[in-house]
Write a structure and sequence with these properties.
The protein is built from 6 helices and no strands. With 180 residues, it is mainly α. It has 2 domains: 63 residues, no CATH class; 116 residues. This is FIGNL1-interacting regulator of recombination and mitosis isoform X3.
């Protein structure tokens, strides 16, 4: 094995992992995935969660056995991903209540939360696309956390948007938000 192949996830930063070639991801999957899952589980930082989730989905998911996706990945990452999304939704709702056209700090915070939520949606989309692109039949029991997580996120988003629209209609106070 080359010196590059001997690099473990604990020694390699997430930035280094993001630069690994496809073949190295495939070859090191069994040693790196448990470490990524542990990092994901023990992290309290939204941006680190998203970075680990994106690396896992984009670089390692394509090399995983379809029969064990639920056991090896989905059941371990998706519940915390849904909780992260719910926390972001809560924070978004609370921050939006304080929003005014003069409060640039809250506008920036809202923009950052929304961008992070889009990244979560992108990772979930990557999981769905991977499963849908599979030529083999996949039993629901092998991916059951995925549909429930996706449905939860979509429902939460629509409920939030509906309640915010309702709130704006009857509060007579527009919620200004400038795009960058």
């Amino acid at each position: 094995m080359s010196q590059e192949g001997a690099v473990s996830a604990s020694a390699a930063s997430l930035e280094e992992l993001a630069r690994w070639p496809e073949e190295m991801c495939r070859r090191e999957l069994q040693s790196v995935l448990p470490r990524l899952l542990s990092m994901f589980e023990h992290s309290d930082d939204w941006s680190e969660h998203i970075q680990i989730l994106k690396i896992t989905v984009q670089m390692f998911l394509p090399h995983m056995n379809h029969m064990t996706l639920e056991q090896t990945l989905f059941s371990q990452m998706l519940p915390k991903t849904v909780k992260l999304f719910d926390n972001m939704m809560y924070e978004l709702t609370n921050q939006a209540r304080e929003l005014s056209s003069q409060n640039l700090e809250i506008q920036a915070t809202l923009r950052n939360i929304l961008q992070t939520m889009v990244q979560v949606l992108g990772a979930l989309t990557g999981c769905v696309q991977h499963v849908c692109a599979t030529q083999e039949s996949i039993l629901l029991e092998h991916i059951h956390s995925l549909p429930s997580s996706v449905i939860h996120v979509v429902k939460s988003t629509f409920v939030h948007c509906k309640s915010q629209t309702f709130f704006r209609l009857f509060s007579r106070r527009p919620i200004p938000f400038k795009s960058s």
